[in-house]
Amino acid sequence: MNYNTLILTKEEGVATLTLNRPEKLNAWDAEMGREALQAVEEIRGDSEVRVLVVTGAGRGFSSGADLTAMGQGGQGSPTDRTTLSTVSGVVAVAYNLHKLDRPTIAAVNGVAAGAGFSVALACDIRIASDQARFSQIFVKRALIPDSGATYFLTKLVGTAKACELMFTGDFVDAAEAERLGIVNKVVPHDELMTETMALAKRIASGPPLTIDLIKRAIYKGFSETDPEQQIVFEMQLQRLVFATEDFKEGVTAFLEKREPKFKGK
Questions:
Q1: pLDDT at 2
Q2: Contact in structure between 127 and 73 (CB atoms under 8 Å)
Q3: How open is the CA angle 109-111-117, to the nearest 5 degrees?
Q4: How many Cα atoms occupy the beta-carbon half-sphere of 9 within 13 Å?
Q5: I want to staple 265 with a disulfide (CB 3.0 to 4.6 A). Which of 174, 202, 240, 245 is the partner?
Q6: Do the Cβ atoms of 152 and 159 come closer than 8 Å?
Q7: pLDDT digit string (tens) for 85-139?
Q8: DSSP per position, 183-203
Q9: Is residue 82 classed as helix, strand or coil in its secondary structure?
Q10: C-alpha 184 chain-centroid distance
Q11: Which domains does the chain have, with CATH numbers?
């Protein structure tokens, strides 16, 4: 499928979704929201894709919602009946990235502000260019952080730091974001995609069903208050993977002292 506001490429089991409104620092308008949802669904339906990388064209990852479009009625506003089934745009994109049954990596090449920051947070892993900057800038527009920001950021940095970042809207640079645990790794700007793709391909070479279930277990553990229930859930998932061909291949490869070749079965 062709997209106007995105570039979607696929290589060696890795899909790369590039936000492509560089003249607007990849700000989210209604069209990009619709197209991103379509792209995520395309990836969900492609069994050849094992990892999704999200990045931005030009100087920025994403500066957030396009306020010009919002002022012209181009972005919908929440209502008192808002539910996950009724949200659209970048909010729905962040949620669908989080729920995608594949690992997701944000390659943050520049500014990630507002909802752009939220989209990066919704990904499982974040690698940042040394030129990246991050801000929960919502408060400076008298808005509440959305697209999952109050959930994901608090889980990463703790309540007190999340409050500080969201109450002030201050920018943090890549080094500080790494120190806080917002990003996994900071790399030189020119090496961002090389480093990101190397990690993505390593993950893509793993057993896809197993990695999907690992992702489910991790995020279920976010809200689980009883360790016993989480352990039981892990055991249930473990029984599923015991029955896969990939598990048998993993054991065989170990015994034969070679690298396993997983097929997703």
A1: 87
A2: no
A3: 100
A4: 9
A5: 245
A6: no
A7: 545 689 999 999 999 999 999 999 999 999 999 999 999 999 999 999 999 999 9
A8: SSEEE-GGGHHHHHHHHHHHH
A9: coil
A10: 13
A11: 6-204 (3.90.226.10), 208-255 (1.10.12)
Which residue has 């943050």 as its token pair?
Answer: 108
Q: Where are the beta strands (DSSP E) in the chain?
A: 6-11, 14-19, 51-56, 60-62, 104-108, 111-113, 125-129, 133-135, 171-173, 185-187
Sheet (strand 171-173) strand order: 60-62, 111-113, 133-135, 171-173
- The answer to whether the CB of 104 falls within 8 A of the CB of 123 is yes
Give 144-163 pLDDT, tens digit per residue: 999 999 999 999 999 999 99
pLDDT per residue as tens digits for the range 184-240: 999 999 999 999 999 999 999 999 999 999 999 999 998 878 899 899 999 999 999
State how far the Cα of 193 lies from the Cα of 84, in Å rounded to an integer.
Answer: 32
Residues composing the chain? 265
